[in-house]
Structure formats: C-alpha cells, structure tokens
Amino acid sequence: MDAQTLTIWTAVAAIVIIIQLFILVLAVGIGLGFGWWYLRKGRRALGLPFLYAQVYALRVQHATNQVSDIVASVPIMLHAAAEQLKTTTQVLARGRNGTS
What we know:
By secondary structure, this protein is mainly alpha-helical. It has helices at about 5-45, 45-95. It folds into two domains: about 1-45; about 50-100. The protein has two helices and no strands.
C-alpha cells in the first residue's frame, strides 16, 4: 500500500467515526427524551396511588399511637393506684391528725 491509499482510507475511517458519533448522540438524546417523557407521565399516573398510600400510612400511625398509649397507660395507672394506696395506708396508720 502506498501513502495515497492510506490517506483515502484514513479519511473514510474518520468520516465513518463521525457518522457513528452523530448516530450515538442522536440515539442517546432520543432515549433520554423518551425517558423524561415517560417519567413525567408515570409521576402523574402514580400521584393518586401514592396519596392513598400516604393516607393509609397515616391511619396506621394513628392506630399505632392509640394502641401504644393504651398499653403505656396500664403501668402508669397501676403505679398511681399503688401510690394512692400507700398514701392512704400511711394516713390511716398515723391517724387523722397526723399523730400515731
């Protein structure tokens, strides 16, 4: 091969590489465009189900808070009743005016 043949083939290779680069950039751009479009379309479509999920989660949270308050109130009421009984027995043991 001589130098002129190599020059022609390098020019052809450069043109092919540039065409492939444009095709790749175009394909990536189209893919990103469709991806953005479907993302916006999907976000609109998922708005109502996400709202229902949020309402359901808030209901579960409210029920959980109610149950935990009921469960926590049992030892608190037991302690209060024990302290009241303790105070009452002390008052009765000392007598009405505080003298034993």
